[in-house]
Amino acid sequence: MLILKRKKNESILIGDDIRITIIECSSGIVRVAVDAPKEVSIIREELQETADMNHDALVTDPSALQSAAAALLPYLRESC
């Protein structure tokens, strides 16, 4: 991990086509501008973690699905 100090309006270059610029620093909050090609995905880490958890919740063990279906089957038969 590379750790850098930057002041307002200073930038960091990543490769030839990504620029990160410090826009504002105040009250413990840093505003950052990211200039990158459209094909580069940029997402806040906490949103990616949430997306990963949602994906993991969708991908279940087939036996867990069978158990859930078996548990629901009596209720489905009653409602028909």
Automatic annotation (TrEMBL):
<comment type="similarity">
    <text>Belongs to the CsrA/RsmA family.</text>
</comment>
<comment type="subunit">
    <text>Homodimer; the beta-strands of each monomer intercalate to form a hydrophobic core, while the alpha-helices form wings that extend away from the core.</text>
</comment>
<keyword id="KW-0963">Cytoplasm</keyword>
<keyword id="KW-0810">Translation regulation</keyword>
<comment type="function">
    <text>A translational regulator that binds mRNA to regulate translation initiation and/or mRNA stability. Usually binds in the 5'-UTR at or near the Shine-Dalgarno sequence preventing ribosome-binding, thus repressing translation. Its main target seems to be the major flagellin gene, while its function is anatagonized by FliW.</text>
</comment>
<protein>
    <recommendedName>
        <fullName>Translational regulator CsrA</fullName>
    </recommendedName>
</protein>
<dbReference type="InterPro" id="IPR036107">
    <property type="entry name" value="CsrA_sf"/>
</dbReference>
<dbReference type="InterPro" id="IPR003751">
    <property type="entry name" value="CsrA"/>
</dbReference>
<dbReference type="Pfam" id="PF02599">
    <property type="entry name" value="CsrA"/>
</dbReference>
<keyword id="KW-0678">Repressor</keyword>
<keyword id="KW-0694">RNA-binding</keyword>
<keyword id="KW-1005">Bacterial flagellum biogenesis</keyword>
